[in-house]
Write a structure and sequence with these properties.
There is one protein chain. The protein is of the alpha/beta class. It has a single domain (about 5-140), classed as 3-Layer(aba) Sandwich (Alpha/beta knot), CATH 3.40.1280.30. Helix content is about 25%, strand content about 25%. The protein is built from six helices and nine strands. It has helices at about 15-30, 40-45, 80, 105, 125-135, 180-185, and strands spanning about 5-10, 35, 50-55, 65-70, 85-90, 115, 145-155, 160-170, 175. The strands form two sheets. Strands 3-2-1-5-4-6 form a six-stranded parallel beta sheet, with helices on one face. It has a three-stranded antiparallel beta sheet with strand order 7-8-9. Helix 1 packs parallel to helix 5 (about 125-135). The protein is globular, with a radius of gyration of 16 Å.
Amino acid sequence: MPTYVIEHLEEKAWKWCLIEYMHIFRIVKKSHLLFTNIKWNNEKSTIKKYGAVTPKSVAELKLRNVCVLDPAARKTLTPKEANRFDYFIFGGILGNFPAQKRTTPELTSRLKNAAARNIGKKQMSTDTAVYVVKQIVEGKKLSDLAFQDKIEIGLGKNESTILPYRYIILNKKPLISKELVNYLKKKKGF
């Protein structure tokens, strides 16, 4: 099984990041998960519960057989080629809407020996992207997977927020962690 590498690209580990990272841990398990570019000691101890942690950027690690997941990549990841990669690199980036296409300058262009593949052109949460790649590694084609573009989370009476990203559909519902939904409901102001 490959290692899923999350290159943390935010200026700190926000609460939503930690929630996504915990969800990724549930998807791929600790032994297959590496968080890079984690520079803050207080977040390191929390993130270590979910996978290996290093303060180094993935660009400093000299990994081989690497695939960067980049929505701007020309080629789409297929099950046949997915098995040749030992590492899948994801950007831990808060997605702005519309997408600012930060993956290419922040990751793809810095990893010269890595292949770049997309899993569709639509922006996904990091945990969704990891889930999709895991499904492809396990033999599913991207076209076999069902998606929903944007979801609405009810926050209370007459109040909701829309997450404008692509989510995978499982059991007729979008896959999103319960912790993130609860966090959004409790969060004061956006």
